[in-house]
Amino acid sequence: MSSQTLFDLNTSILRAAFPATWSQIAAYMGGEDEDDALLKVETSRSGVPTLVVTKEGKGLFLHSRYDPQREAEAFANQFSAACQGTTVVFYGVGLGYQINAFLRNHPGVNYYIYEPIPELLKAYLNHQSLNDLPGKKLQGVIIGRHDQETVSFLQSVIDKSRGELLLVELPMHKQIFAAEYEKFLDLFQKTIKGKRTQLHTNYAYQKRWIINSMKNFKEVLSTPNIVMAGNRRFKGKPALLVAAGPSLNEEIENIRSIKEKGLAYIFTVGSAINTLIHYHVYPHAACTYDPSERNQIVFEKIKAEGIKEIPLIFGSSTGYETLQHYPGEMYHMITSQDLVANYFLKTTEEERLEIVSDAPTIALVTLQLLYTLGFNPIILVGQNLAYQGRSQHAEGIHYTTQVTTEEMERGIFVPDVYGNEVLTNAGMDLMRKQMEFYIKKFADCTVLNTTKGGAQIEGASFLELEKVISTYLKDQVYNGTWRSELKTDYDLVHLNVQLASMDRSYQRAQRLTDEYIDILEKIEKLIGNGNYQEAEKMYVKLDKTLGKIERNKFFAIFILPMNRVQYKILIDSIDRLNEEQNPTLKGQRIVKSFKTFIDLCQEDLQLIAPLYQELKEEIYSYKG
Questions:
Q1: Residues 86, 92, 94, 100: what is their CA dihedral angle, to the nearest 10 degrees?
Q2: pTM of whole model > 0.90?
């Protein structure tokens, strides 16, 4: 078969099997950037083709010039431990000898082929029939020319992988194309780390987000929505965003002066409220959004001392314990994690509900808030994002700890505001990068960093607070009546219409779970009796019932988000379950996976039944 015929056959396979990725591949094939002089196919001494890559005037063999097949077999034998359930990413194709050798040893693995060099992928498709691959579980062929394409690919691979994820790199490829390999490896490691963090966050808070949103609904209805009521009200006013970094200790008198003279609005985030109270400086508002039960510890001092002068701006999915018995005024912002408020609420003016996107830290949430309210400049204080000696927090925070020797040893150095290096940890460094992302996004707002000795934050010019005062804070801007001017009226009619609809969905939800469980029991019996043909029909019914559950409002707003991790695991596993060739194993695995999921849903239906009743009573008593 000629190379052109083989290429045409392979492209038709890719077009049919992976239409989305094929369109990306096709865009690079034969493009202006393609270098026809990059590769040359030669015959090895063993008589099979090998590849020569021309790099910086030198010819470099991608495979052995003597016996590429024997070389590939020796390479593949290193991976004898690859087991059932492993997902493999082949990095770099060449002519595919290493892929074939690996798949002969492990034909049952799911695998992807990733090639960042278009010319190499074209050479592969000219010489290797995809129909003849020893492994029949090819999941995709990807050409990684842009970072976002690569990240999307890696995220998809991680989502669908339940066992080990194995990266198999063509050795000479990563040496010859070192820059491409380093970029891929960096994206690979960052994507895995990001997915782990996201999974941990979702698993830790998936139930709390919904329970908090339900428990906080009373306070949401009875307090102003600061984002909507205050939208652009503070345009051009300066604001201090005060965090609890150790350098905050040095700025207390400057903050006191700003407060007394009304030179800017002062907002604290996290534990900074306790440092300011310690020095008898009250901010204009404290901000909170953490969904955890521990969040209430930050506000213990305010509650214990009955301090009424400090308003609390809370994210609607914040830990509900934080709001209980808070002595001061409260204002809310609807967060993207609060599906409850998003479903039930709209204003009487038919305004679209303004949402504050969930973010890893309260500093980022508050930065969004201040930008939305129109504050400019936004002045960062105590935003160290690094250690200061053994300290990681300012004074007046009784629940903080000193940095341990082990933490210091694990630390990483980053540039500080003076151009020197400062020690931080991976968590704070990630926060810094996320803050830089938001600052870049808010390009029409000036963000100043006054944190002495803190990590450099790109996009936020460093200027000591004394100089900020003399340059930017010359006049009194604080309006003492700002709080009384903020009002929000949610639409009572809309609220009751939504409740009536949700009530119907609630009644239907229990019937759907019964229907779902009944189907699983029938599948179990059919598999036990060896009636696989009827079992296949029941799989279709099970899929339809799952679709009904997904469309049910009560499940969509409350139950599925409370089990978002397990739900995603179930959805991502469906293709793999359907690929199982042994009908008994297939049935058993389907029953186990689907039953585990519905058992969790049933538990949560019982868990939130009293909370839903409380929610209804709050809606009935709301007068608008």
A1: 0
A2: no
